[in-house]
């Protein structure tokens, strides 16, 4: 059955000599993996491999077959032509890092319009902006809304935050309770949108510390989450 869908590239993996396996988050069916046969062999196919850079937004025609783990693409086009994401070294570092996180945490093979819209508009915003140093922090924090463990804002005036429960508390309950500078940053980021990010002033050390806390938060709430391999490179380039 021929299906048309939009998709965001999460990862690609060389398979055999001339094939690629590309994992996308699609607007129609959530996470879908595609086998691109011979795409690395022909000149025509090789040209299209450029479409499958991390976080590229695509228009896909697929030959969908139910109960098949790998689907096949009959045609693909760029839905959005990024101006900066893949050429600016700082933005491309963010792209590499976030695509690895998303590839790890997005598993559902079902439609989720709110999540797809969030991803699409976030990357469009990043592509257009010149001030984006804290983008990845707010992106990951707001991503937890869609993953089911966004911090409970109802009592954010309390002096401690429990990473295990996602709640603010009056007293520290576990080893994973924070009350330091990361707590202040968390409260600053809660409830704001990307356009307000320039009001949050952080240096590289603060940014790196808060990111480490966020990744721990992901680990505590997602049993199989592991810190991205690209984290070291990301911190070197970006911070």
Describe this structure in words.
With 239 residues, the chain is an alpha+beta fold. The protein contains seven helices and eight strands; from the N terminus they run βββαββαααβββααα. 36% of the residues lie in helices and 22% in strands. It has two domains: 77 residues, Beta Barrel (OB fold (Dihydrolipoamide Acetyltransferase, E2P)), CATH 2.40.50.140; 150 residues, Recombination protein O, C-terminal domain (de novo design (two linked rop proteins)), CATH 1.20.1440.120. The longest helix has 18 residues. The radius of gyration is 19 Å and the shape is globular. The protein has a five-stranded mixed barrel with strand order 1-2-3-5-4. A three-stranded antiparallel beta sheet has the order 7-6-8, with no helix packed on it.
């Amino acid at each position: 059955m021929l299906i048309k869908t939009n998709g965001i590239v999460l990862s690609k993996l060389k398979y055999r000599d001339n094939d690629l396996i590309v994992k996308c988050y699609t607007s129609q069916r959530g996470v879908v993996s595609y086998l691109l046969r011979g795409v690395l062999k022909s000149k025509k196919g090789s040209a299209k491999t450029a479409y499958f850079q991390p976080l590229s937004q695509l228009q896909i025609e697929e030959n969908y077959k139910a109960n098949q783990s790998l689907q096949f693409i009959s045609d693909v086009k760029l839905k959005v032509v990024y101006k900066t994401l893949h050429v600016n070294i700082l933005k491309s570092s963010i792209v590499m890092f976030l695509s690895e996180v998303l590839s790890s945490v997005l598993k559902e093979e079902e439609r989720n319009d709110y999540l797809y819209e969030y991803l699409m508009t976030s990357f469009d915003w990043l592509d257009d902006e010149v001030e984006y140093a804290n983008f990845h922090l707010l992106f990951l924090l707001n991503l937890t809304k869609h993953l089911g463990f966004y911090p409970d804002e109802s009592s954010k005036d309390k002096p401690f935050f429990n990473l295990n429960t996602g709640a603010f508390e009056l007293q520290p309950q576990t080893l994973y309770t924070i009350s330091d500078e990361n707590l202040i940053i968390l409260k600053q980021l809660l409830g704001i949108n990307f356009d307000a990010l320039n009001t949050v002033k952080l240096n590289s050390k603060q940014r790196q510390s808060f990111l480490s806390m966020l990744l721990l938060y992901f680990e505590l709430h997602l049993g199989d989450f592991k810190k991205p391999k690209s984290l070291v490179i990301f911190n070197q380039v970006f911070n």
